[in-house]
């Protein structure tokens, strides 16, 4: 993901203001590559730092075994992962059982923080799992990746273990869209391009250099995560990114290219609700402390006017 100085200058030649300069500097310093962090080097760097990996899942029986075996267990066997947790949304396809057989500690999201009632979405599951685990560094991976690789974890852990000034590392992938077996390059991140990127460029331009602000694969220091507010649903990734910027500053954040990732894709109408969750997370942060809270009501005209709760 390294760009030459000339490329960076060209990207920002239309704007010489302080925000553009900050983004250009970040672009040059903090866009990293997983290949620069081989497992042997990570083992030397880990020291007394403890690492927890959390994988939130929902109906991931066909992929969770591969994710754990392909992305996590090679590092767990070398002592780089101290706790591997799969927090499941009560999947009916046996996801949790497969995870346990593969060597993960299985948690049911509704059984964590039971006094709060049933978990309300992915972000809620992540927050509950965070509170139920330890680990100085916490890494989140998605459970529906169809092409897992050790690079997916090493590129998240490597920067945090090698650079103590970093607080959060987002993953970035080449994400093709699989359309009936035809791979369409760069077409896999539709909510990112149509909602998240415009929002960040408009309201949080310091984060405009992130290629995939909605990536579910990221790692952070526990102290930072415990200061972030987790939206209960799909707005969690962009919310944590914004909270991390405000808590630590841009130079404490990085993005690491992890290779390719193929995951299941949602139909267009489902993407509308995901985009709404992203929009709501950003809008809530624009209001500041004590500001208005967006109501998650989403009308589906194509479904006889049914109202979904986002």
Q: Note the run of SSEs as H and E.
A: HHEHEHEHEHEHEEEHEHHEHEE
The biggest beta sheet reads:
8 strands, mixed
Helix/sheet category:
alpha/beta
Shape: globular
What's the number of helices?
A: 11
Taken as a percent bin, the fraction of beta residues is: 15-25%
The stretches of 5 or more residues where confidence is low (pLDDT under 50) are none
Q: Tell me the Rg in angstroms.
A: 19 Å
Number of beta-strand segments? 12
Helix content: 25-40%
Q: Calculate the mean pLDDT score and round it.
A: 88
- How widely separated are the two ends? 34 Å
Order of adjacent strands in the largest pleated sheet: 1-10-6-9-5-2-3-4
Task: Give an overview of the whole structure.
There is one protein chain. With 310 residues, the chain is of the alpha/beta class. 39% of the residues lie in helices and 18% in strands. It has helices at 5-11, 18-29, 39-46, 64-76, 95-102, 122-131, 151-162, 190-203, 222-225, 236-248, 268-286, and strands at 31-33, 51-57, 83-88, 105-108, 137-140, 168-174, 177-179, 182-184, 218-221, 253-260, 297-300, 306-309. The strands form three sheets. The protein has an eight-stranded mixed β-sheet with strand order 1-10-6-9-5-2-3-4, sandwiched between helices. The chain has a two-stranded antiparallel sheet with strand order 7-8. A two-stranded antiparallel ribbon has the order 11-12. Strand 2, helix 4 and strand 3 form a beta-alpha-beta unit. Helix 4 (64-76) runs parallel beside helix 5. The protein is globular. The two termini are 34 Å apart. The model has no long low-confidence stretch (mean pLDDT 88).
